[in-house]
Amino acid sequence: VQLQASGGGLVQAGGSLRLSCAASGRTFSSLALGWIRQAPGKEREFVAAIRWSGGTYYADSAKGRFTISRDNAKNTVLLQMNRLKPEDTAVYYCAAMGRGNPRIKVVSEYDYWGQGTQVTVSS
């Protein structure tokens, strides 16, 4: 599976960004997709994920501000990030796992990773 993330950038606190991830190399319907981020000096942490069925999962820090969605026709997953905060600054990775894996919030369970895109939120 190849994952290509895009859409990062620099934004002021309170602003919005939309990340996009294009998947190829495996049937899209067989995958659950997630966004994981890593801030400088910190461990990677789960942000949001979505199943083929459309079921969504969010970290507490993302609830109410971020929305994950997928376009199965385009093999793409999106992360709309609103009301961004400086603490959201990180490299954001698109990642995938088999769709039946129940541990969708566990970072180490993801089998496939994209290259990451930098999100910087200034105060």
Would you give an account of this structure?
This protein has 123 residues and is mainly β. The protein has strands spanning 2-6, 9-12, 17-24, 31-38, 45-50, 56-58, 66-71, 76-81, 90-98, 112-113, 117-122. The strands form two sheets. Strands 2, 4, 5, 6, 9, 10 and 11 form a seven-stranded mixed β-sheet that branches. Strands 1-3-8-7 form a four-stranded antiparallel β-sheet, with no helix packed on it. The mean pLDDT is 95.
General form: globular
Structural class designation: mainly beta
Q: Please mark out the parts with pLDDT under 50 across 5 or more consecutive residues, or reply none.
A: none
Summed up, the helix count is 0
Overall pLDDT level: 95
List how many beta strands DSSP finds.
11
Succession of helices and strands: EEEEEEEEEEE
Radius of gyration: 13 Å
